[in-house]
Amino acid sequence: MRPLLLLLCCLEVATAFVSANRGIVSSSSPTQLAGGYDATVGADPKTPIQFFTLPGNTCPYAQRTHITLNELGLPYDVTEVTGMPKPDWYLKINPRGKVPAIRVPTADYAVIYESAICNEFLCDYATFMKQTQTLMPTDPFARARIRLLNDHCDNVFSKTQFTFLMNKDDSKDEELCNEIEEALQMYEDALVESKGPYLLGEDFTIADLHLLPFIQRLVITLKHWKTYELPTEKFPKLVKWVQSCLERDSVKESSMSREKTIEVYSRFVEADYSFGGLNKNK
User: Fold this and answer.
1) What is the pTM of this model?
2) 52: which of 92, 169, 219, 232 is 20 to 30 A away, CA to CA?
3) Confidence of residue 273 (pLDDT cuts 50, 70, 90)
4) SS3 letters across 50-91
């Protein structure tokens, strides 16, 4: 998660624990605890995996790992981390203070953070536990392809997305719109090559869940603030891909509503957010 996304934490006043059964978050209300409560004290040492995230499914980076956990069907507990700056107990878990992070109590409380690393670890963990999974294939060429697509998301696409969204100079919108579409072309081409419905073909993989949280937000925010929609004549495969992904239970369970997304991003737009350097208007 980019550092400035931590602004969301100021809107919350507690740390919450939500039990989850095979990746499905309980519908019961989370137990509200004081923001400074040390989660390392309250954690059940028998919990296979502890997942640390922000409240309300607001973080796209944490959503990647949330989807991964749900797709793999791994049992986990959710700990919502609040406060600004992050509480000391969480900095002991992740010194960077960002989410997502996961901790495995049964493995001497091993900690993993950064979404891409968390997700590959979880796939390897599932395989180690003799569980069949297709999120991260064993073929080295397919694995490299996934990492290249993910690198494009993090270092090219996301910058064009937030620069276009946050631009206040109308005369530059056409140029910035062209840049975002140039970045998206890589995914349209990947879907044509793979013959879909997903980026690597028949299987939903880490490449899909790495990109999806940002595309979800693009579809909602750019339509709301820029009256921009993905053109079906230019991106027919990508538009169908979005719909296919949104229909997955793992995505539904980890997503914000359209209304909540606009509410959250209204604060970013009003504050002229830099998104940790992704907004190149700065």
Assistant:
1) 0.84
2) 219
3) low
4) EEEECHHHCCHHHHHHHHHHHHHCCCCEEEECCCCCCCHHHH
